[in-house]
Prior knowledge:
6 helices
Amino acid sequence: MNNILREAAKIQIDKKIKFQEAVDMIIEKHQYKNRNIFNRNILKFRKFYQYLLENESETFFINEKSKETLEKCNESVCAIKQYLNSQIGEHHYEEAIFGTFTYENDYKGNQTPTILKVKAKIDNFIINHESKTIILNDLKTTISSIDEFMETSFNKFRYDRQFAFYLYLLNNAINKQDEYKLLANVITISKLDGKHEIFKINQSSIEKGYYEFQDCLKRIGFHETYGYNVLRESL
């Protein structure tokens, strides 16, 4: 039921149509794909949506627990905006950063380097010309509690690689003379209770991530150079 609602809401926004039209599209799609699985849920959903149609504003109804979480999420979003606005410097939001990674290896006597084109779209980074710092801020949501995020999701999804990669691109694109100190924060909102926290990424995590993302790119460079059916024994 929730999946149908979410999918219909997404279609409504993407196609700029009425919600009822989006619902009809979802019902037709799911009945066509697998009538037996979706029939009962669709019948329930039709009754529920018919109830919603009585309210012309198309209000969505949520239970008390969801309402509380939504309110806390809204408070967290406001607090994060306030934090970002308080940071002095040149703000950049959702900006694409482009760069290159050079892979050099003499496998089978090949001396020609392979240049990989890489890019990232960064949530936010702030350049402070007075303090000579570049602060990377990346937003994450998690189903874990805030207290457990760094020990669970951060490690599970190898976010240290992502942060190191972003800093690598920022350093090459902006900090070419090594004039600026690079810092990184992960701004986290928990879907569990709507709470948020801003975690500073320590240098050891960045160094670990830097090694791992370089290893990943070296593997790509190897196979781009010698073919994807060639085994990579070592670099």
